[in-house]
Amino acid sequence: xxxxxxxxxxxxxxxxxxxxxxxxxxxxxxxxxxxxxxxxxxxxxxxxxxxxxxxxxxxxxxxxxxxxxxxxxxxxxxxxxxxxxxxxxxxxxxxxxxxxxxxxxxxxxxxxxxxxxxxxxxxxxxxxxxxxxxxxxxxxxxxxxxxxxxxxxxxxxxxxxxxxxxxxxxxxxxxxxxxxxxxxxxxxxxxxxxxxxxxxxxxxx
Length: 205
What we know:
The chain is α+β, with helices and mostly antiparallel strands. It contains 5 helices and 8 strands. Helices cover 28% and strands 35% of the residues.
């Protein structure tokens, strides 16, 4: 990931991007070329592993091997920025469109987990993570045991040993303050995705 100094964020903030995104794209290199899968992830204690699962029917895991290098991509905010939002363009018309976004990438090594006990723990962990704070809070045990067992047989676990994490928050920091504030205010009136970017700009990330 290319990260100019103005857009750099520290590791803690990069991990927060992973958490905020909730799910990411896992990319591997296979004998047939690049392959990707989009999955929800749980970050382990100490941030040493990313834990997930995917459908057994998905060919992605069959193309992978233990030790395969994985690039995990996470996007927490994203919006197009038109030069029309720049008040400074009146005096300095040399402007172009751009994109504001907050993203992170994690590099790691893959281990496949085809063990019902492991996948059962992972399914509970991912459910508890994303159900936290919801009312009512759905729990795995709300489903019949036989159904849960059937579903566990239909998935394969993914464990990624984290080798590095890097994050980037491109939020108009390279523009004059008047342009930054104008972009933020315009995006705040836009789509949900644009509003998310505006909130990130307000929070100074």
